[in-house]
């Protein structure tokens, strides 16, 4: 039995029973299950395109450097501009979710980054590339928090780490594809057009297609929550919610309330602090492709090395999320934190070995391959094992998009400094000279300078990130219990 609406003469609403046969109930259940499955498939496809888009430009840094006569510091500024805009714009995703459903927001962001990606491929001047990278950051700012809250609402607490791990794993496949595609195409020409430009236009076309599919077929997970499956009754949320068009004042008031609620959560504050530090190495890693090419590896070899690292990260994110789920069952308030600290700590020895111990020569290809794979396997746990699942547990469900949005705002803005810092350190402190680089053979001296700058921006931040998690052993328990109590109170009021 479901519920329908009838209006009293006073205009108030009351509920009347509406009979549904068992066959009708079963058909509705199967339809909703199919809708959830299709939505998750398309959400993961959107994640694939998002990660592919992120990896495009770093994969062709060398070609962009030659096309626009730009050194490492200028290339770092491109990443800086995109990340700053992405960070500052991320809270907008939390505001938009209050008034629009997430499929619409995801499609809007996808179209935005698709247009900007195509425009980068068509740019003729460095400033044009910089402008469109800023637009690209705006699109990603809308998409990423909405994706994360969508996954948080689609999985229960006990398997949420695996859910985020699966999203990261599948998204990483897109990152691998985007990086490999751009790197392999970069050294060629198609119809008289440089290969790296063709890669950008191709990726923009695919992103637009995914955006249309998301807009047409993705269903909000909230619309399938609270459906009793073992009784003869179904509460149709769409019939129970009076949808109006809230005024701009009410939207901003509700947004401000959500912002204040999120900012007061100490678990959020600490995870953001470690994220600001912990994001620095990952932002610096955009120079890996360029570093390998300077060592002397050709496009295909550099693409393979980065693919091995990406495969390790993809597997690690899923494995880390799954392990953290198991640990959280044994140690509900500390299991995820222990997994995150282990992963952050492993970044220190791997960064030192990769950048300082392995001989920087093409003869070290096998050693680079094994190191990169194992490094990716162990340092990629934090987001899926701890950060994303813990965020979902310390705020009410209605504030999840907002907390993910503010996390991206702080982390993205501050980590943006890593890329230009690598360029500045390599040029000013370690003597990198872009004019000394051979377009075909690279330059051993410049590769060494870049590796020293990378090590400075990786090993120390990984260590600080590990330490930043420590206060959560005391704070997470309290915030989690507070969030559960608030959710129970809201349910009783409803």
Structure write-up:
The protein has one domain: MFS general substrate transporter like domains (Growth Hormone, Chain: A), CATH 1.20.1250. It is mainly alpha-helical and 494 residues long. The chain has helices spanning 22-59, 61-68, 72-89, 91-99, 102-122, 126-154, 160-186, 195-217, 237-240, 248-263, 266-284, 288-295, 299-330, 335-357, 365-379, 382-394, 400-415, 418-429, 444-456, 459-468, 472-493; strands at residues 2-7, 13-18, 189-190, 193-194. Helices cover 76% and strands 3% of the residues.
A few lines on this structure:
The chain is mainly alpha-helical and 494 residues long. Helix content is 76%, strand content 3%.
Q: Strand share of the residues?
A: under 5%
Mean pLDDT score:
76
Distance between the termini: 20 Å
Question: Biggest sheet: strands side by side, in what order?
Answer: 1-2
Q: In terms of per-residue confidence, which ranges show pLDDT below 50 for 5 or more consecutive residues? A: 1-19, 24-35, 224-244
Please summarize the sheet with the most strands: 2 strands, antiparallel
From the 3D structure, determine the CATH topology.
Growth Hormone, Chain: A
């Amino acid at each position: 039995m479901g519920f329908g609406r009838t209006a009293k003469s006073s205009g108030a609403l009351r509920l009347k029973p509406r009979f549904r046969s068992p066959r009708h109930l079963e058909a509705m259940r199967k339809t909703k299950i199919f809708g959830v499955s299709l939505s998750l498939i398309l959400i993961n496809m959107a994640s694939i395109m998002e990660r592919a888009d992120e990896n495009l430009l770093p994969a062709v840094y060398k070609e962009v450097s030659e096309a626009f006569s730009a050194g490492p510091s200028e290339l770092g500024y491109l990443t800086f501009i995109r990340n700053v805009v992405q960070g500052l714009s991320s809270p907008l995703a939390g505001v938009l979710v209050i008034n629009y459903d997430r499929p619409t927001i995801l499609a809007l962001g996808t179209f935005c980054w698709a247009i900007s990606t195509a425009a980068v491929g068509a740019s003729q001047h460095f400033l044009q590339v910089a402008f469109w990278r800023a637009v690209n950051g705006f699109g990603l700012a809308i998409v990423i928090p909405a994706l994360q809250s969508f996954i948080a609402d689609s999985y229960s607490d006990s398997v949420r780490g695996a859910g985020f791990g699966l999203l990261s794993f599948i998204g990483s496949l897109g990152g691998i594809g985007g990086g490999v595609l751009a790197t392999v195409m970069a050294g060629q020409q198609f119809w008289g057009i440089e290969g790296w430009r063709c890669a950008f236009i191709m990726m923009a076309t695919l992103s637009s297609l995914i955006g249309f599919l998301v807009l047409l077929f993705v269903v909000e997970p909230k619309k399938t929550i609270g459906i009793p499956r073992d009784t003869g009754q179904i509460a149709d949320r769409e019939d129970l919610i009076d949808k109006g068009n809230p005024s701009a004042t009410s939207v901003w008031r509700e947004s401000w309330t959500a912002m204040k609620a999120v900012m007061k959560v100490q678990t959020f504050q600490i995870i953001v602090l470690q994220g600001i530090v912990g994001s620095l190495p990952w932002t610096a890693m955009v120079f890996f492709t360029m570093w390998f090419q300077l060592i002397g590896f050709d496009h295909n070899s550099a693409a393979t090395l980065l693919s091995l690292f990406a495969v390790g990260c993809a597997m690690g994110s899923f494995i880390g999320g799954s392990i953290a789920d198991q640990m959280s069952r044994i140690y509900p308030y500390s299991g995820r934190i222990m997994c995150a600290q282990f992963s952050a700590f492993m970044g220190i020895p791997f960064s030192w070995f990769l950048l300082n111990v392995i001989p920087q020569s093409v003869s070290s290809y096998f050693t680079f391959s094994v190191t990169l794979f194992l490094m990716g396997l162990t340092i990629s746990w934090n987001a899926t094992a701890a950060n994303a699942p813990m965020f979902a547990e310390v705020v009410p469900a209605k504030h999840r998009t907002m907390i993910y949005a503010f996390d991206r705002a702080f982390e993205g803005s501050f980590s943006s400094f890593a890329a230009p810092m690598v360029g500045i350190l390599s040029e000013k402190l370690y003597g990198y000279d872009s004019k000394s680089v051979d377009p075909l053979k690279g330059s051993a001296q410049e590769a060494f300078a870049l590796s020293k700058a990378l090590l400075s921006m990786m090993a120390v931040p990984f260590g600080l990130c590990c330490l930043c998690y420590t206060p959560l052993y005391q704070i997470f328990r309290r915030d989690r219990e507070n969030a559960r109590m608030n959710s129970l109170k809201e349910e009783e009021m409803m």
